[in-house]
Specification:
The protein has 603 residues and is of the alpha/beta class. It is built from 18 helices and 14 strands.
Amino acid sequence: MSTIPIVIVKVILLVSFAVASGIAADQTAPRVCIEDGCMRGSWMRSFLGRRYQAFVGVPFAKPPVGPLRFAGPVPNEPWTETELDATGNVQREPCIQLDILLSQRGVEGSEDCLYLNVYSPMTSTKGSNSSNHVPIPTLVFIHPGAFMVGYNSPLMYNAEKLMDHSVILVTIPYRLGAFGFLSTSDEAASGNFGLKDQRLALQWIQKNIHAFGGDPKLVTLLGSSAGGASVHLHLMHLQNEGLFQRAISLSGNALAAWSTPKKNPEQTARKQAALVGIQNSDQLTTSELIQALRSVDANQIAKSYSALTVGQRKNRYFFQQNGSPYHMLLYGPVIEPSTVEDAFLTAHPKDLWSHSEKYLSVPWLTGIVPNDGFVFSFPILKDAACSPDIITHQKRMLFNLLGGTERPDIFPFLSQRFSTKFTSIGECFTKDNVDILTQIFNEALFAYPLFLSVRQHSHNKQRQNPPIFLYKFSYKGERSYSTVFVTDDSLSRDFGIVHVDDLLYIFRSPVLFPTTRRSSPDAKASQRFNELLVHFARTGIAPNGKDVGHLEDSSHDLDTNDAEFPLAFELINTNRTDEPVAQRFVDLYDEEMISFWKSYYGD
């Protein structure tokens, strides 16, 4: 769900990749040949100084423009260049988007955006054809961004921390907003084009990763937030069989209200058409509607997002006055007709996940951070003082975010679980209530769907299910994405470990944060977390609390856990300068919380 500030737009367009990423000078650039042609990459240095290869801006699909807008992706043709420049010097724009949270940025990106990046250890491609070469695992990263925004740029997700480990990293883009998810609920535009972009990238990886030293049988999907929900959805797409062998979802779940299939997508498509000036959009056939939308300038479509809101027109006040991100929830996965030839999702994820024969038998590592819900609660910090006309709009905000059936008693209902904290709220939320809102959203939109998916998985007895491993990232470092979400110093304070903070330890983000010192506690936390991720990518196994001998610090009784609910490994701070991060096992299971939200959603 995360978003990023305006500075990235200027940096991506104006700063050279070589300067920003610290490419090591070398007269002999790395080269790789695949069926599409040969490509020239760049040498780079990992966080600890290891040399690795970077191939940036490799096409895997035809530009989705013209008749390919609002259509499934088509594999690219072999390139005509003798040698493709994949050094990063040729700038590839992000997929076209408008960040509603920071709409002053304007539209950025291009429809021609389906280019992936591959990072591999120095020896992998050189030895990939030798008889004694041992292939290494591949991590495929799907970026966050509420299905509306996001980047796979090395300026945002730099590989140098992961490249201290024996792993290949592929970062993939996918179409966003209307371009990735607009749907008419029929064959005219079935939707889920962004998810189909991800699927095509996985097919490209299966076909070509051996050329980079990778093993097509050791591919792990890794996604964060909307990317994590995407990973979960890929598990439920049986046609993905063989495209990946492990899955990792960081703070993202397909059963969460913000990622479940949108209702009435055709209505949204017709509203979108009306906003860009298509006459009689409510009377056109779906084929005529899509044909008309294909003729509209892409920037005009993206720019119109700010006028497209959830719910009735009278409820637009809250969204527009506060510049909130909540109508970013408009576009996302949809249920497609089974008659669609390349359909990705033909049933509700809750129905698919409740039957083990309807999802892939792949080990899954998933988890949360303590304050994931902050990504939804922080806009309240910008609110003016309570006034009578904002009460209804804040209730609408709760309905839109929490999902479920609209209920006039939402405050009394929530007070059943949060009674002591609701006494200070009165009739509307203020910035003083950001912590309670964070807890509400954290439980409803991250923890509860996680627990629900684990319980459904463990209750399936039709087959021997693959294992689910849980984590909780509770290490507090020097930096946090809360400084990105909240840029007003007068509103800033310590908001804890917030949504996507764990990404800080997997990647370096040079456009947002300064480089971490090699001797710092954060560097050690990064090393520990990435070791766990890479080990899982190689073996399909993560810590699960059964090997008590590896407990470093645990105040929890391991015997109190629900027999069918796995323990989670948690990374935490210590008071030791020589070992500032420790791992322990915790019981995340909370029957009271599960029962409360199960009652709310009627699950």
